[in-house]
């Protein structure tokens, strides 16, 4: 992200990913290349950490990874309703969190932007600074939420989330269709929020680098610090929202029918102790 799109005559600002080459009918952009690299880096780091985690307390990078995992579990425990579910789904939501953080933070490296360029076109651009990239990420997240909801509640339970237990009721049918349409708006909301915050940060850093080339480079430090903060905030918000969507879709499955039936029977046929709790 440092010196991104900064040309000799001024900062070259682009709100969209730029074409590098074509593979048949597919256009390969700088954001696509960078996204693949970050995805590979995420997998390699996860594999390296997994091979070094043990029952005994660890130190160094492994300890930081364990603290990050605990943070993610705590983060999604509230929306999902229990720590047990948070542990179960931590690998999925943790992947979103880590990928977004790495994509944003590694954009601060000098090689990203004009550090490596073909003409005036940077070879690397953060995937989260490309609207197509954030839309793809949001679609994957919503599909994952739908899949996990069906896996958790079953097809019937998942549809009940939209249409209640009386889907043929015209009002319930209308509300259910409206709720399903809401899934599309969630994709738009997630993708636009992530894209706009990252793209604006790219522009600020680019302008600060250009200004710093004519004066003090310290003008860049506050913006870089702000970008680091935004990188974590955006990953936090994206992950929390996805966990919240899953929690809302599966909240009815948390109810225990057997427990409810037992409670109903106890209420209908109270025991002597319940009728006379004082023992008198």
Number of alpha- plus pi-helical segments: 8
Question: What count of structural domains?
Answer: 1
Specify the structural class: mainly alpha
How is the main sheet built?
2 strands, antiparallel
Offer a few descriptive terms.
8 helices, globular, 6 strands, 280 residues, two-stranded antiparallel sheet, mainly alpha
Question: Would you write up a description of this structure?
Answer:
The termini are far apart. With 280 residues, this protein is mainly alpha-helical. The chain has one domain. α1 packs across α3 (83-105). It has eight helices and six strands; from the N terminus they run ββββαααββααααα. Helices cover 67% and strands 6% of the residues.
Write the layout of secondary structure elements.
Layout: E1 6-7, E2 10-11, E3 19-23, E4 26-29, H1 30-50, H2 61-80, H3 83-105, E5 117-118, E6 121-122, H4 131-163, H5 170-212, H6 220-250, H7 257-268, H8 272-275
Antiparallel strand pairs: 1-2, 3-4, 5-6
Helix pairs in contact: 1-3, 2-3, 2-6, 3-6, 4-5, 4-6, 5-6
Give a brief outline of the structure:
This protein is mainly alpha-helical.
